[in-house]
Write a structure and sequence with these properties.
It is a single chain. By secondary structure, the chain is mainly alpha-helical. The chain has ten helices and no strands. The longest helix is centred in the first third of the chain and has 21 residues. The N and C termini lie far apart (45 Å).
């Protein structure tokens, strides 16, 4: 795993989040690396993301790139993570259906603005055959949690959903359905469609009334 803590004092490094007191050089370096990797993904695919190509097409030095992104996995994970959908569903209401609906509606909007999502899906397919991309997908899942996790845990704690419900399955049902509708079926993720997704998912995991 990359140690983000060491980057806070180095002017040529990446941090997971932009901070108001961050050295502008840190921000510029991180953003330039992210933009270069995402551009390579969009133009030429995952195989084009190498240290040599990133150095060639950016103003970041080879030494800096290797010091803070030591391998292709780090480059891909960090750049794609920077473009992950932001699920800002507002303040939790305490009602599972309402909170899940608000989160997925926000996620639906973000999916249409995320450059790397099609390539993330493509790498998911390649991960079944290519160990390198399998590692990339595992790292993305480890590093980038979603707001669905605390919502899921609260719902189990208050009895809204069954205690034996699986978090990974729950998130896969939410994200997998949204991805399929948006990218496979080319459906517009309207509020009504998202609400239908939420109702369908909750039907299978909600706790039975006493």
């Amino acid at each position: 795993m990359i140690s983000w803590a060491s980057w806070e004092t180095d002017p040529c490094v990446n941090t997971a989040d932009t901070r108001s007191d961050e050295d502008p050089r840190v921000t510029r370096t991180r953003e330039e690396v992210h933009a270069t990797v995402l551009r390579l993904l969009a133009d030429d695919g995952p195989a084009a993301v190498t240290h040599a190509r990133v150095v060639e097409e950016s103003n970041v030095s080879r030494a800096t790139l290797y010091r803070h992104w030591p391998d292709r996995t780090a480059l891909l994970v960090d750049a794609i993570g920077s473009e992950r959908p932001q699920f800002d569903g507002g303040e939790p209401t305490g009602d599972l259906r309402t909170d899940l609906r608000n989160l997925l509606r926000a996620g639906a909007n973000a999916l249409t603005e995320t450059q790397s999502m099609p390539w993330l899906l493509a790498m998911s397919v390649r991960a079944a055959e290519d160990p390198h991309f399998a590692v990339v997908m595992e790292r993305i899942a480890e590093v980038h949690d979603t707001p669905l996790s605390p919502l899921f845990r609260r719902a189990i704690a208050d009895g809204s959903i069954r205690a034996d419900a699986d978090l990974v399955v729950f998130q896969s049902m939410c994200f997998g359905t949204m991805f399929s509708l948006r990218f496979l079926w080319q459906r517009e993720l309207t509020d009504d469609l998202v609400d239908t997704v939420v109702d369908t998912i909750l039907t299978g995991i909600q706790a039975e009334p006493d």
